[in-house]
Amino acid sequence: MSYDAFALIADDLKLSPEQLFVTARQNPVNLKDEIQRSKIAKLPFILEEDLLVRGSKAPILARGMDLMKNIDAVFRILQLEQNFIRPPKIKPDTKLNNYLKNRISADLERISRKVRASKKLGALFQRAEKNKDVEYALKNLTVALNKYLSSPEVIAALWNSLRDSRGSSLMEDSVNTALIAMITTAAYFQVDRPLARPLRRAFITHIGLSALFQDISVLINGASEDDLRDHASRSAELAKNLDLPREFIAAIANHHRVTDYKGRPILESTRPALSERILVCITYFLLCVMRKNFDLSLAEAMYVMNHYARRLYFDRMVVLALGQMGVGGFKSRIISEAAELVQQCDYGYEPYLWDVNAAIPNRIICRHPSCRYLGKERVTLFRRVLFETPEHRFNIPEGEYRHCQKLTGQLGRRIVMIHKSGH
Fold first, then answer.
1. Which of 3, 28, 217, 387 has the fewest Cβ atoms nearer than 10 Å?
2. What is the distance between the alpha carbons of residues 72 and 420, in angstroms, rounded to a whole number?
3. Rounded CA gap, 291 and 281, in Å?
4. In 324-343, which positions are buried (b, 16+ CB within 10 angstroms) versus exposed (e)?
5. Contacts from 291-299 at CB under 8 Å and sequence distance 24+?
6. 3-state secondary structure of 129
7. Burial of residue 234 (number of CB atoms within 10 Å: 0-12, 13-18, 19+)
8. For 87, which DSSP code?
9. Strands 363-366 and 352-354
10. How many CB atoms lie within 10 A of CB 191?
11. Which helix (DSSP H) or strand (DSSP E) does residue 102 occupy?
12. What is the pLDDT along the chain (423 residues), one digit of tens a residue?
């Protein structure tokens, strides 16, 4: 694995590679001065391979030479408007790796601030930042990344992805996944599984790093059909270089797994590790809310997630914890209870919670034509709610509904109980 010297120099000087070439041809003296004043001037730029010009067999610079000490020779070639066979490749080095890791950390911190300012997810982040464990994790994720980031291949992939718009967009998605995974984990430990603070915070950090790297294969290899199909296992292989605990590597490999080998809901036959249950949940939650996918509201996404959790595709307590941060604990519990109630229709039909986007949704609605429990109250849905997993299709069609008196009454009693319990 090696680094592109031109890309490193251009980035440090805040130039594109094309601008670097133009400047080298037109004003090499000033460019050399700028490089010598830059942060990278004292870094070892040791060539990984011979530097060759097209049409010449003799190298301009031989493998093992320091490019920085011979930059004049490179500029002369560019001034002659000749082209290199390949950009100069330089060997990974501890100082160079640390420089790149610091640049990556600064970029990820910038992306993190942007993600947390999201209009759709802003309320989620605002609730989360009141949690001391989340606050700790947000402050220390890039510190942890520097500790675990040791593979030149992964360093190069992250650094390169942050240099172009497509890769930067993928990194934004990865940071989003990491932040929400950590937030959900912190909430989960509050509602279901208390741990001593050091263990809790270590787990939260590890889940954040796992989420950050669960799609690293796509960043390195591109988004070809083959890589998208196998990206989870390939990402897990790459993540082994990070020295994460084995459980979290397995979670990366299985972050899309919602069924077992027989095609049944995963939690019917097995109980994966908590890290896997969290990554799977966050992966599908983000499919629900991201604009380029289904663009559901937070509340609609939580209802969809609870729909599948009650059918054992997702861990119900993980979904409840995510909902606590996403829509608040009280509303999250109502949505969870409603997802169970709608399975109790006497006719085996599929009623729905209404209005899931209200502060307190308190109706079960249905469009079954001959149900004896249908009340006179009518509800019109002007927009359908649609979500698909690889195995199933969740679809609430637009149209006219009436409320179910039986299930609405049961929901009302449960809402009162949730309120009295203080959740």
1. 28
2. 77
3. 18
4. bbbbbbbbbbbbbbbbebbe
5. 294/386, 294/387, 296/385, 296/387, 297/120, 297/356, 297/357, 298/120, 298/121, 298/123, 298/124, 298/326, 298/327, 299/326, 299/327, 299/331, 299/335, 299/356, 299/357, 299/361
6. coil
7. buried
8. P
9. antiparallel
10. 17
11. helix 94-116
12. 788 899 899 988 988 888 988 898 889 899 999 999 998 888 999 999 999 998 888 889 999 999 999 999 888 888 887 888 888 999 988 899 889 988 888 888 888 888 888 889 988 998 888 888 888 887 778 778 877 787 787 888 788 778 776 667 888 899 999 999 999 999 998 876 667 778 888 899 999 999 999 998 887 776 666 666 788 998 998 888 777 899 999 999 999 999 998 889 999 999 999 999 999 999 999 999 998 889 999 999 999 999 999 999 999 999 999 999 999 999 999 999 999 999 988 888 889 999 999 999 999 999 888 888 988 889 998 888 888 876 678 888 999 999 999 999 999 999 999 998 876
One-letter amino acid at 381 equals: L
* Block residue for tokens 């209404």: 354
Comparing C-alpha atoms, which of 80, 61, 4, 67 is closest to residue 41?
67
Q: CB-based burial of residue 230 (10 Å sphere; 0-12 exposed, 13-18 middle, 19+ buried)?
A: middle
The span from the CA of 159 to the CA of 240, in Å, is: 19
* Cα 204 to Cα 372: distance, rounded to the nearest angstrom: 49
Token code pair at residue 110: 């910038």
What tokens does 79 get?
A: 């001034």
Residues with Cβ within 8 Å of residue 114, at least 6 apart in sequence:
172
